[in-house]
Amino acid sequence: MNTGGIQVGGIHRRGAENSEAPQREVTEKIIGAAIEVHRLMGPGLLESVYQQSLQIELSLRGIQFLAQAPVALVYKGHVMAAPLKLDLLVEGVVIVEIKALQALEPVHTAQLLTYLRLTGLTSGLLLNFNDITLKQGIQRVSNSLRPSAFSAPLR
After folding, report:
1. Nearby residues of 13 by Cβ (< 8 Å), 6 or more positions away
2. Long-range pairs, 148-154, Cβ under 8 A, ≥24
3. CA 121, 71, 2, 65: dihedral to nearest 10 degrees?
């Protein structure tokens, strides 16, 4: 596990130069690990418990990730003091947002899409561990839009 920061626009995306196959493979590994966490822990716990459990499970499976990965944000050419923190950045190609909610709302999908756009990544997972079966709490999110709007010239 690495705890170093990443900077928007300078993020290394292992496998990003290839097709979507690496993201799909990594996503399947993450889902397998999350299902194991949910099977052992069950629903109804705090998000932080699921985050720690998933980190342990990913480590046990030899899957590399950054926990609470800081992403420097730039607004109109100014680096913001408070970085965005991703719950997990797995293998440098998939952002994982962990939730423990009664239900996922559209704003949670929008949040992950924003994270994908700001980092230039294309694949994300929303995992809501507070469902009876985790299968109901998994949302794959894909961003095929431009990597970052903040780098567009102002008119």
Report:
1. 92, 93, 120, 121
2. 148/8, 148/9, 148/117, 148/118, 148/120, 149/117, 150/8, 150/74, 150/75, 150/76, 150/118, 151/9, 154/76
3. -30
DSSP tag of 154? P
| HSE-up (13 A, CA, CB side) for residue 38 | 22
| 65-72/6-7 β-pairing | parallel
Q: Give the three-class secondary structure for 67.
A: strand
Q: Of residues 135 and 2, which shows the higher confidence score?
A: 135
Average pLDDT over residues 107-114: 96
| pTM for this prediction | 0.81
Write down the pLDDT at residue 146: 54
* Confidence at residue 7, expressed as pLDDT on a 0 to 100 scale: 42
